[in-house]
Specification:
Radius of gyration: 22 Å
Low-confidence stretches: none
Helix content: 55-70%
Shape: elongated
Strand content: under 5%
Number of strands: 2
Oligomer: single chain
Mean pLDDT: 81
Largest sheet: 2 strands, antiparallel
């Protein structure tokens, strides 16, 4: 009787932990949705993205020439970064996919498809050492995964989805070269105490 009681206790404890995690995941998802829907910051990002989407103005954001275009680019990047962060949360079982899909599923796919050509161009990064463009599929990869998971109509981007850019120099902030993911970069300068 003793070992059976221990097994039942362990099972009940496991169920409790599993349920507590599910509730925490659901609450975190509702919190992120509420923040996106209600805070002025996210509302302004949504307005900027929607205005760009409706005007078909993503192409100008690759090499912004005016302060207005630079602000629009930053807003669009922040808006897409929000979706990427949510997708990472869902992919890592931190956020609840079912709740997020029910509330935001169609918007996730609509916005992905609207920005797909912009994202595709952003994935091509200049490798100055080789004087050529390199395709970086990891840029917004989690967002692509989420949009594809929510709908078969979500565009799937690969290096074959578009030709390399013809420009052989950095034309705008989207063409700035990125460090390799495993490259720690230069060492920080040493801190020297003045005597």
């Amino acid at each position: 009787m003793g070992p059976a009681l221990v097994l039942i206790s362990v099972f009940v404890a496991w169920l409790g932990i599993r349920n507590a995690r599910a509730v925490a995941r659901q609450k975190a998802t509702l919190d992120i949705i509420e923040k996106f829907e209600s805070t002025e910051h996210y509302r302004s990002l949504n307005e900027a993205f929607s205005a760009t989407r409706k005007a078909g103005g993503f192409a100008a954001l690759h090499d912004p020439q005016s302060d207005e275009e630079r602000k629009a680019r930053a807003d669009v990047q922040d808006y897409l970064n929000h979706y990427e962060l949510v997708a990472i949360g869902i992919r890592n079982n931190i956020l609840d996919e079912k709740i997020y899909k029910e509330w935001m599923g169609s918007a996730v796919v609509r916005d992905w498809n609207a920005a797909a050509s912009y994202i595709q161009r952003e994935r091509w990064r200049l490798n100055e050492a080789k004087d050529d463009f390199v395709y970086r599929p990891r840029l917004y990869a989690s967002y692509q995964w989420l949009a594809s998971r929510f709908s078969r109509d979500a565009l799937r981007l690969t290096n074959a989805s578009s030709d390399k850019p013809q420009l052989m120099h950095a034309g705008g902030p989207g063409d700035d070269p990125l460090p390799e993911p495993n490259d720690p970069g230069p060492a920080p300068p040493a801190i020297v105490d003045d005597p």
